[in-house]
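Morning!

As promised:
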Amino acid sequence: MCLGLPGALPVVNEKAIEFAIRIGLALNCEIAEWCRFARKNYFYPDMPKDFQISQYDEPICFDGYLDVEVEGETYRIGIERAHLEEDTGKSTHVGGATGRIHGADYSLVDYNRSGIPLIEIVTKPIEATEEKAPLVARAYATELRELVRALGASDVRMEEGSMRCDVNVSLMPKGAAEWGTRTETKNVNSLRSVERSVRFEVERQAGVLDAGGRIVQETRHFHEGDGSTSPGRSKEEAQDYRYFPEPDLVPVAPSRAWVEEIRATLPELPAARRVRVKAAWSLTDEELRDVINAGALDLIEETVAAGAAPGAARKWWMNELSRTATARGVELAALPITAAQVARIQALVDAGELNDKLARKVFEGVLAGEGTPDEVVAGRGLKVVSDEGALLALVDQVIAENADAARKVRDGKVAAAGALVGAIMKASRGQADAGRARELILERLGQS
Amino acid sequence: MSITRDEVAHLARLSRLALGDEELDHFAVQLDAIVSAVARVQEVAAEDIPPTTHALPLVNVFRADEVRPSLGTAEALSGAPAAEDERFRVPRILEED
């Protein structure tokens, strides 16, 4: 199993079936009452046993849709099918100029992901998108990623290959009734690349057609660098995978009761969540988008759940903590601070025990590994001295130590109180409430 | 139903098997005999008998989602003719054009 070797006997991971059904339900799909796995036979070193277990004409999920929004307009993306298969090894091509299979001297294969469950989600043709096709394609991939993340089925990190896209493009000339020949572009490994590869293919195919040429049905390869695509295997034979039912796996027949049980446990889906959060936190579209792009939605929501006001929670995560994350080159969620800790710091601010300046020092301490917010407050002695008794004691002490200044104030030179306030702030290491300290000094010296 | 020499040659190419002319003739006859024998099942298959792919009336045989010990890198690579960077090194995959 580990190396995709011939003779390995497969067993289906129940969780993979459950996740496939979850994804299917979230995509408004029908769930097959009975389906089989099939062998897809091909000869390539990413699978030494020379076939991949997949599904052929009986996918576990079919006929669904996902709505996405582009520039205020909703597009319904039809889902043709979602089927389960096993992943294959990862190949890296060495030598040659571009890291592509063409011109490579040899290849390295990592089998760590071979045999791991993979779900392939196939859309129906997305028609009538015209010049917005690249944006619609990107919006779909973005929404799908959010959805799968919300379902907990994958970490959907495109840069690590846990979500991958193949982009199919064909054109229908104005006035024509049928779609032209389609190309499939592989190696599209980011949301931005989805948009760029569609744009490139639309323009390339239009150029060929305008010049009176024909589109060749082929697999193309996307290049991150310049956003272009180029033909894949030039001598590719007509694909003949000789699919047949997988003899080592029995059919999967999810009971309707199980399907309904899974449906009942579906979490709030991203589209509904956006509507709710936007209203509850009074956000503009741009603010919501920034929060989502920063990966802060979950964190802010957890911080709010832990008691912080939405505005304050958003402020800390989007400013202070985002800056730190950027500086450290990590994701927001990877910072060594929890939502509950952020909420605790904000609670201290709300209670008047910290001001914003001191709160920033507490963040600094927590992020530096000095402990919980309360430990940092205690360890660094960061509390605002708002306690009247403590402040009064400090006022009396400063008056005694600065007899000259105190006399001047007593004599009516109120401006001299500034030196006393300064001394109090110094003695309290910035933690005293300066305004209140001034009032108390003037009161003590008979000037109020 | 009969298996032609061309079909055997096609299958051999897909499977990366180098078969000589004599072998192609030889296997065509043999495969034809096997496929013809199996095809006889269709003679008794009635309308009400669904195509059968598994002999056992079982469905939903699953395992739990548990990580189990598996081969380490050194052990996995111990049988590799060539390895590099903790991965299997394989010859050029596509011939040069």
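The radius of gyration of chain B is 22 Å.

Hope this helps with the figure draft.
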